[in-house]
Amino acid sequence: MSQKNLQIVRGIYEATARRDIPAIVNAFDPEVELRLADNWIYADRNPLIGPQAAIVEGPLSRLAMEWEGFSMIPETLLDAGDHVVALGVYTGMYKATGKQIRAQFAHIWTISRGKVRKLQQYTDTKQFADAVKA
Known about the structure:
Blueprint: H1 2-17, H2 21-26, E1 28-35, E2 48-49, H3 51-56, H4 59-66, E3 67-80, E4 83-94, E5 99-112, E6 115-123, H5 125-132
Parallel strand pairs: 1-6
Antiparallel strand pairs: 1-2, 3-4, 4-5, 5-6
């Protein structure tokens, strides 16, 4: 089962890279819970419940509007049974200031019945905060 979970998470990152929102939404449980890092610039609606809030209206759409070349690059995926831990970096340039980031992240995915049930994000919130300051 855990190899399947790794494939699910890998597929989400691939869909994110190609901006395939329907594929991302399809991978999420209808009651998915997305918890963003405390003090992150997009954590103002924490926690996000359901694919509409978590994906369609959530940080991905806001990142796409406010950042140039924003990407989420998973460098390592760790199998933890019903959980997958992704370690990687966010990169991009904040359009309003021209400031770039290369911020580490850790994502802890919880998979149940072939769907993402929960996602906890940790990241370098200071890099994001510094990038948005004029």
